Amino acid sequence: MKKTMVILSLFIIILLASNVTDDLIIPDNSIRVRVVANSNSSSDQLIKQMVKNKLEEDITNLLSEAKNINDARRIIEDNIELINISVKTALQENGYDTDYEVDFGYNLFPEKKYKGVVYKEGYYESVVVTLGKGEGNNWWCVLFPPLCLMETDESNLEEIEYKSFIKEIIDKYF
């Protein structure tokens, strides 16, 4: 009887696990960041990437102590001038002379498909940096919780240990 229950339980777990995906779901209570390029020219897209890299580093450092979304909001609001300086520095360091705008509030995000998941268009709490005319492709991710950092360098994969819950149960009882 015990063996039948274990097999039945494993079958149910396998069925449930087959319906689980590795999709990244953005929490409703989050703050995003978006950088919109001036245009789709290669130079404008390159500068967007450089601004994105600088912002990602600087804002991540600012938010490292945020324990909840209210902390994150306060930190961003208190440091909006530092975020402006971060953008200005990235532009100046790369010899790029264009106007830009930094906005923290509820901003429109276009639909995005990423790793098979469609993120709906809508207004989301966010820091949006618009470079020049803002007519180019954009980049965005989630600042808080810090999902931007979840895409780590895959060169360190040998340090990750993967375990299978189902295999552990099978090994334990069989």
Secondary-structure map:
Blueprint: H1 2-18, E1 31-36, H2 42-62, H3 69-78, H4 80-93, E2 100-109, E3 112-114, E4 117-119, E5 122-131, E6 138-144, H5 165-173
Protein model, in words:
It is a single chain. The strands form 2 sheets. This protein has a 4-stranded mixed sheet. It has a two-stranded antiparallel ribbon with strand order 3-4. The two termini are 14 Å apart. It has 5 helices and 6 strands. The protein is an alpha+beta fold and 174 residues long. The protein has helices at residues 2-18, 42-62, 69-78, 80-93, 165-173, and strands at 31-36, 100-109, 112-114, 117-119, 122-131, 138-144.
Count up the helices.
5
Largest sheet: 4 strands, mixed
Query: Looking at the structure, what is the overall shape?
Result: globular
Question: How many strand segments?
Answer: 6
Helix content: 40-55%
Rounded average pLDDT? 79
Low-confidence stretches: 17-22, 149-163
Structural class: alpha+beta
Strand content: 15-25%
Gyration radius, in Å: 21 Å
- The helix/strand order is HEHHHEEEEEH
